[in-house]
Amino acid sequence: MNGKRFIIITGGVISGIGKGTTAASIGRMLKEQGLRVGVLKIDPYLNIDAGTMNPDQHGEVFVTEDGYEADLDLGHYERFLGENMSARNNLTAGQAYFSVIENERKGKYLGSTVQIIPHLTEEIKNRIMNINGDVIIVEIGGTVGDIEGEVFLEAIRELKLELPRNSVFFIHLTFVPYLEVTSEFKTKPTQQSVQLLRRIGIQPDMIIARSHRKLDENAKNKIALFSGIRPAYVIGIEDLPSIYQIPERLFLEGVHFKIGGYIGLDMKNEFNWDTPKNDKNVSIALVGKYTGTDDAYKSVMESLVLAGAPKPEIVDSVTLERYSDEEVDAILAKYDGLIIPGGFGSRGIEGKIRAIKYAREKDVPLLGLCLGMQLMVVEYARNVLGLEDANSTEFAKDTPHPVIDKMEEQKRILKMGGTMRLGSQKAKLIKGTVIHEIYGRDEISERHRHRYEINLDAIPQLKDADSDPELSNMRISATSQFVEAVEISDKRFFIGVQYHPEYKSKVGAPHPLFKRFVEVCTEKS
Ligand code: GLN
């Protein structure tokens, strides 16, 4: 083959209809054809990265190996493609503008008026062209018509003209509502969304129409007619029980042949894809404060699903604070295991601590992630070691027992964006611990995103598993220059990690900690 091919994926009508998972599924399908697939997720917001955004509105922040704080869609690409993404795979409007303005100050455009076209579009085109691969998937966040997205569509329109014929394939993903009263699909929003695209000079080559129930031929034909697309290039995907069924579904619709035919790549009728089966009969609670959208804990949820569990239920840590101990017990009693995820700020902290106390006392499997681990230490300090009012200085600056405190290097940092301890770092696992046995090796590399750490000066009782053979004590089980994991070894599963294993689960390769956690939850006590 000669020259890179580009598959541009835009969204229409509404957001949240699975553009990221569909794009990642197409990527996986093409990878199975032996092609090298590159990815660029474009986010038209002005933030430099997703690190400072509220997960309740925007979904989780996904952290890459190189410590980039990305939009959660990079997580879909990692899980579906089975490959690690990096900062290069995400472009925000903020980055594009920042770079143009920096260049202007350096004198790169001396003499010219710096403009959206051609300077900003040039910057965007360069970022797209610099992605390596045979086929590059470019997913544009948001929906067509958003004012922030226009410059990206303009850049891509130009790119299509500059590249050899048939090297750019446009897919528009829309939503087709079904009207119960008249028993019909309504295609008008899709038609209008295509019109918006055309107005800026882009004619889609394929439409993927998402709908709650299976789209009928009538609706497909109508969309085809009004959008100037052959009916075979209108693909309907109704709600499926699992997002991991999308790749197979697209394959069965022959989407690879349709794309391949257009961009001149031979495709085989083969697809190696094992849809993960989340058939384990367990019920897991995720005790968290972001209850606005499932997306806020995306990677944790997908890690559980990839380990065979059904989606966990979110138990609101803020409301948990209002109940009596007996009520907390009653609320949590129906779950086979608890996860305390990462988070920031004091809201809901005491609710999480109560859930941890419940799990420790009742020996219910518990996995603490980052903030979750920090709170396991706080709970242990208060309720087992008797260090009254022990806390993290993130929540109580004047606590008499600051068992969690800001990392030394973080105390000097005043800026907020991109300044945490971020990305992949190595840690040693201590022999004889549960975590060492789970990983089956001495050294691990895991991704981080935090400012606080365990402060051993305030909790000297916490010792290395090496030096404290007492299995019922909370012991340090992994270290780097920081404490990286703690556990109470004789519990069914009571492990807290300072890092985020959830970012590393892939389809067919769930993270070992989640895998074991789900296994233990399955063995009913
Ligand atoms: N807020 C805590 C810290 O900064 C935990 C962060 C997290 O859970 N990612 O250390």
Describe the structure.
The chain is an alpha/beta fold. The chain folds into two domains: 5-263, Rossmann fold; 284-522, Class I glutamine amidotransferase (GATase) domain (Rossmann fold), CATH 3.40.50. It has 18 helices and 24 strands. Strands 12, 13, 14, 15, 18, 19, 21, 22, 23 and 24 form a ten-stranded mixed beta sheet that branches. Strands 5-2-6-1-7-10-11 form a seven-stranded parallel beta sheet, sandwiched between helices. A hairpin with a 4-residue loop joins strand 8 (178-179) and strand 9 (184-185). The longest helix has 14 residues, at 93-106. Bound molecules: glutamine. Residues 342-344, 370-371, 394, 449-452 line the site of glutamine (GLN).
* Termini Cα gap: 58 Å
Major sheet: size, sense and barrel closure?
Answer: 10 strands, mixed
**Kindly state the mean pLDDT as a whole number?**
94
Strand content: 15-25%
Q: What count of structural domains?
A: 2
Total E-strand runs: 24
Present as ligands are:
glutamine
CATH superfamily of the largest domain: P-loop containing nucleotide triphosphate hydrolases
Kindly provide the name of the CATH class of the largest domain: Alpha Beta
- The CATH architecture designation of the largest domain is 3-Layer(aba) Sandwich
CATH level 3 topology of the largest domain? Rossmann fold
| General form | globular
Return the structural class.
Answer: alpha/beta
What is the count of helical runs?
A: 18
Task: Give the helix level as a range of percent.
Answer: 25-40%
Gyration radius from CA atoms, angstroms: 25 Å
Question: Residue ranges: pLDDT <50 for 5 or more in a row?
Answer: none
